[in-house]
Amino acid sequence: MLKVLHTADWHLGQSLCGFDRDFEHSCFLEWLLDQLQTRRPDVLLLSGDVFDSINPSAQAQRRLYNFLAQSHSAVPSLQIVIVAGNHDPASRLEAPERLLDSLNMTVVGTVRRDDEGEIDVCRFLVPLRDSAGNVAGIVLAVPFLRPADVPLIPDADDPYLDGIRELYRRTTEAALRMRTDRFPQTALLAM
After folding, report:
1. pTM recorded for the entire structure
2. How big is the chain by its Cα radius of gyration, in Å?
3. Model confidence over 140-156: pLDDT tens digits?
4. Measuring CA to CA, which of 29, 57, 96, 125 is 20 to 30 A from 65?
């Protein structure tokens, strides 16, 4: 059985009414690390708004990367999947992609297109492994979508919303194909 712990909206680097919330974030991440050690999930999903700003402070970035390092040390088999939210610097989150891949961590911040301009929806599909190392799920890790990220739908009533629907449809279709072709009987999870 696949054990998943899901979280979102950390907003690292946020201040509230002029008060820095770093101490609160520190306490939360200590608690979350304890939960990871106690509950031993196979996967940690982080659904966006890791940071509070598209230009997070060095302290906020340190807070994230220290937590990721501590998580890997505490639970080396833990798989982490992070998608960018509307507050996040999507490209900056993806910057250490190769390093994070080596630690069993996946970050999807941006929408990428091929040479023909088609969206690479397979990039959003992340196989999830259970404690035995078997693929037991596929997460549809779709980041926050901006108008330029979605397919253009001719004659749409709302080009942005209809484009989002179309991208979700294509991603779901690709996930169903992946499950049928490679990982039958796996769960699909959407972020």
Report:
1. 0.95
2. 17
3. 999 999 999 999 998 99
4. 125
